[in-house]
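Weekly modeling sync, notes
Attendees: S.R. (lead), two postdocs, one rotation student

Agenda item 3: backlog of single-chain predictions. S.R. asked that every request posted to the team notebook include the full sequence so nobody has to chase files. The rotation student volunteered to paste the first one in as an example of the format we agreed on. Action items at the bottom.

Example entry:
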Amino acid sequence: MISPDKFPANSDSLLPSLVDLMPQFPMALPYSITRGEFDRYRYASFLVLGSVVCSLLAFLIFNFQIWIGLLALVLSSLLILSLPYLRWKNKVLAIENELPLFLSLFSTYLELGLDFNGALERCADEFAIIGPMMNSLLNQSKAGISIRPLLAKWALTFDSYLIKRATGVLLSAYESGSMSLAIKKIASDMMSVQSVRMREAASKVSIFTLIFVCVLAIVPTFLLIYSLLGFAKVGKLEIELSFLLVFPLVGVVLLLVSRSLIPKTILSSSTSSGFNGYLLLAPLLVLVFHFLLPSFLLVGIVVAILIPLILSHSDFFESRKIEEMERFLPDALLSISALPKGSKLESIFVSMSQSGFGVLSIESKRSLSQLQSNLKAQSVLDDFYARNPSPTIGLALKSLSQMLSLGNFDRVSLVARDILEIEQLKKERSSLLSMQKYTIVLGAVLIPLIMKTVLGLFSNTTNSVLFDGASSSVSLVASLLPSYFVIYGAISALAISSFEERRSLSPLYFAFLSLLSLLTFYLVPA
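Predicted structure, as returned to the notebook:
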């Protein structure tokens, strides 16, 4: 059986790990704040330590301004207090994300003739978030407690009308013994809710994307103008920190907030929607060359663009392979559903290997040869998933394993329909967020154009208008801009690939955006 822990869970393990390192502080926080996620006494000490450290750093950075330190203390305390609630909310959203497919598969197993507990047990093995919860309820049920009050208590734990609605229809199915059509209808409605949430999130994300471009284009321009005209005394270090640290960090925060507003699509994996760590090497390399080897900055930029491409090439080809397999998977499942009752796993792989499904047919031939070598059927399915670690493929394999044990494949077409609906949601998400992507790409052109225009204007302005040392500031900003463009390209590439849930494309986006900004800056006349 495919282990549920192979499916990536949307859980945050860093915060509890940090809290566990803290000593127990003699202070109890309200349960409504911590939601029972961590030891509240340890979390109180984490709150005190984190807020004090943040306030001291702000106090030191801003020239010992007491009011800034106090402000940082209040803001950091509020932020740390909100983290458990945000984590709990994230957990609720993850459950809601899995509910439509969970209910759909549950109704499918009911139609195959399984009883309520049997269908619930088979569905629980297929989901990373809901699965362990349902298994816990089933274990208590086996100990003699009725499943009905357990499900009702589980629904009351979460402040979500979708979870309560799903629990209501499950309880009705438990009482009546079937209601598979009603459950299918609820699952379909919840799929529609996912689509509505994406539309709402797209409008909010567009605002944050515009602010992101303004912060990285307009605000640096005003800083440059004010400093060159003498309205603000900005030294060399302040300019360097602003362009290479402050503005990029603000941009990162804005994009992280916008990313948190977008609900993940069903069966999205951390390997597709997570951040590409190799891309973080590019800004670091550029900063090293800028401060330590400024004469070789152009070489550093070329190296910074090439390294993520080289290190991520295997991830790119692997992702492309899995995307092609997922595209053919619904058709393959539909062909399997036509197999007669009592068919073996070997018949399934023969059907897929001979149907012209591209990479999926090639992988099926490999699994077929393993079966012919007398490997166990479940070992072959586990190996197929290990070679192609996709939640969608894992779900299909698990469903095949379950229906193989029941000797009936005619309901595989329902799984194919569910996967088609999920693929449609992914396409809709990409379409809704395309405007945000094009806004960020436009920013890669606007930022160098604005900066070059401003620098060109002040280079031709008489010295009587500018303050002393303005020419050196112009030269300093001009030397900073190539590194600034590369940093913008890295941040933007991570954002776009996250919007599209295609992490493997982030190095390509990074190379494109960085080169676009650099070519615009150097080739377009001021």
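Discussion: group reviewed the output briefly. The first helix runs from residue 14 to 20.
Action items: rotation student to repeat for the remaining queue; S.R. to check formatting next week.
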